[in-house]
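Internal ticket #5521
Category: modeling
Description: The requester needs a full-assembly model to guide mutagenesis choices. All entity lines are attached below as received. Residue total reported by intake: 993.
Assigned to: D.W.
Attached entities:
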Amino acid sequence: MIKLTIDGLPVEVEEGATLLEAAAKLDIHIPTLCYHPDQNVKANCRICLVEMEGNKLLVPSCSYPAQNGMSIRTHSPKVRRARRNILELILARHAQDCLHCDRSGTCELQSVSEEMHFVKIPRYPYVARSAESDHSSPSVARDSAKCITCGRCEYICSEVQTVHALSKTGRGFEMQFRPVYNRPLGESICVNCGQCVQACPTGALTVRDETQVVWHTFADPGKTVVAQVAPAVRITLAEALGEPPGSISTGRMITAMKRVGFHKVFDTDFTADLTILEEGTELIDRINNGGILPMLTSCCPAWIKFCETFYPELLPHLSTCKSPQQMFGALLKTYYAEKLGILPQDILSVSVMPCTAKKFEETRPELGRNGIRDIDAVLSVQELARMIRSAGIRFDTLPDTPFDAPFGLGTGAGEIFGSTGGVMEAALRTVYELVTGKALRNIDIKAVRGLEGIKEASADMNGTHVKVAVTNGLGNARKIMDLVKAGKTDYHFIEIMACPGGCIGGGGNPIKENAMMTSRLDAVYRLDKELPIRKSHENPAVKALYEEYLGEPNGHRSHALLHTTYINRSGLLE
Amino acid sequence: MLTETRIVLRNMDKIDPVSIMDYKKRGGYQPLRKALAMKPQDVIDQMKLSGLRGRGGAGFPVWKKWSITSAAPGDKKYVICNADEGEPGTNKDRVILSGDPNSVFEGMAIAAYAVGAEKGYLYLRREYPYITPILEKTLENARGEGCLGSNIMGSQFSFEIEVVSGGGAYVCGEETALIESIEGRRGEPRFKPPYPGVQGLYGKPTVVNNVETLANIPVIIERGGKWFSEIGVPNCTGTKVFTLCGNITQKGVFEYPMGTNLREIYETHGGVKDNFDLRGFMLGGQSGNLINAGQIDLAMDIDSCQHAESVLGTGTIMVIDDRHDILDIVENIMSFFIEESCGKCTPCREGNIRIYEILKRINSGQGCPEDLTLLEDLASTMNVACLCGLGQNSSVAVITSLHNFTDVYRKAIERGQRA
């Protein structure tokens, strides 16, 4: 153990602990900006500087290791002076428009300024880092004038996701983080996962807002505004509204959405179940008839663009199933419109997602028919939370409301789509029973659960030893894809989710740190356990839809509505 | 009148730089042979005895640096010669490398033997491309004679040296930025600790020494650490290679014992030209100190300079006569650092340009007394808060000129306020 004193108080820490960690042990808070608990140490913002006895230079507490006998002062006059001068330099380059910033209230720069009681006007004239405001991406908006060049976005994009869409350009005063090859973000290799938004301490990277079109359409009496809500949303919405991570709010969420103005609120769990039947049938067909294996899941639009860009030669491995969002959209604009006897263009099809890439997916030209989009607007969890707040609804005391029919029934299998391993577990629950004709005794398939980057499992199905893998985070996807490309795997089926932790870690959720992920994950499986039906093929509403409208899984109509094609985007790399 | 004490410059103009025979005739590579017969720890002990401190500017004891790397665990270790001589006005490393490259290579080999490295890099300033062929030819000749390469002089010790061209950035003279540059990334400094001695090139223990430091090493091995320690002043032993530039009559590179008086150096080389008066000195390059003519009685060694709130740095002495305005010089220095800041840490990225703006305001008669407070406030923050030596020292010229040329600032502000 290392013994040192901080602000006169003795403390013991493990060897290798930083001064920031040692201070935290004493409940001494040191302000930080470039520091992020889930990232590498950068030590570039210099806000966390502390004074070390016997040292002329101040040292960054985020990087400096605690050593025996050190005497540290965290808010001496020398520290305070330097810290305030540095903050002043940052503020003199940061857009002065907190009042109408998306991150007002959750901005780390704002909270550091507040903590340090920095209430004066900087002594330097304001110079924008860049006048560039990039709204080219359907998912992520960039406002360089709010960037403090901490580098957290680049780290998550390059080191965790291995996408390398953002890069440091320019030097000195001109240095900034920009999309590579000087392209607008929307024309870049960005896969729209939104993890950079989760990492950004300020409003420099935000989720593109689509609430306005929804608010406007509420006022149009000729339109039916229909929402579908993804499995993860009921797990993280309450958190976005101030409750602890892992607070499940399904019934309150539906009540709030009805009060906000949605005419119908449906459950994407329903099409998650539908996905399992389509995808499961496709898998069985590929295994039995010598199709291309391993088959790769296709419900994550960030992963799809990643595959289209970096592994176009592996596109035939992707399941042809649309994502649950897009299956839902297709059914709304065909079956549901017909059932209601209204024109598909009179439905505003809104989906509420934990995801920013879904905003990109809705724009894919192949997903619609006759010029009518299947999805008209995608709202992130954060946008729905904002709508609820701005409608003046107090969320914590709301009563419950059930989802609307006919797409209101989802199973536990559909619900667990929200976490990494969930699609695989749901698929195995169904495929095992379809192939063997036997009931699965233990349906909790723990091998594919949890936050580990790469997980494996296998199951014996009538003599076929089915091997599966599950990955989350695109850096892990890249590792697996390199093996698949080299022919070095014998998996039959691989689930891939772009975001660390799966959809509950998606870019559209409230800003997270990894420490919150376990609570969100536990909530997903708690909900699964509570649901009366836990296997997709036992969903009576799904069965009814096949009987009434779709026919067989992978049948003619299913193919037309529920399956899709992919695009080789490797040209983006040139 | 001073006469030079040539240790580092011992072979200057006496040999064909690339000729291994010429170098050997003057005793070259005998020190390496001698070192190879010693235990590595004994080599380090000789360095300790010599008191040699780094000549790149920071003055860290060489034996300490080597001991850290020697003790650090690692399957591979590296020795890097920092030849990214970037301080404007400094030419000593260029002169050493082009005049006697073997002395540096031999120093690297001895360092490598002492710490257990088998691979070395010489990181050459981008603006010195003409030296590359000299270095390559010298390496080829030395390898041919078995003085470098595999099983040097029949021993078990092998050491390869590779010449790497710098990226053209001043900040790459900072050892961790230099390492990043060799690794193929943006030349940006790393935070320390961990220091390169423990975790340097490719994460391995790495000794980074300056050209002049390394050129001293063969002589120390040959004549012993004790002999070396008697040159110069206590705690600051040996000689220093100074670059004289600016308004001095005789410009050039000269070697004097540590502790030599600045006035003597100045007078030996002719002072300022007739009809002009001495205004002051810029010591240690752009990142160094501005002192006034009255501060000329200064012992030129690392500690004395530091005690006088000055800096020896790279040993550059820029003489300023009364044709030049101090504010113009400081403004020019800041424009250099605006150019050369890598942009990684906040105070350097944002601070240099702000200082420049304030200086420009004062210099153009738009300044106010509060500007002096702001200058001091910002410059002293950068001095203690920046991530690397570049940012920590970029404002030293401002701080020292505020102290040593107070009147210049005061008058510029008064002039502006009267107008």
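Resolution: model delivered.
Comment from assignee: The mean pLDDT of chain A is 97.
Ticket closed.
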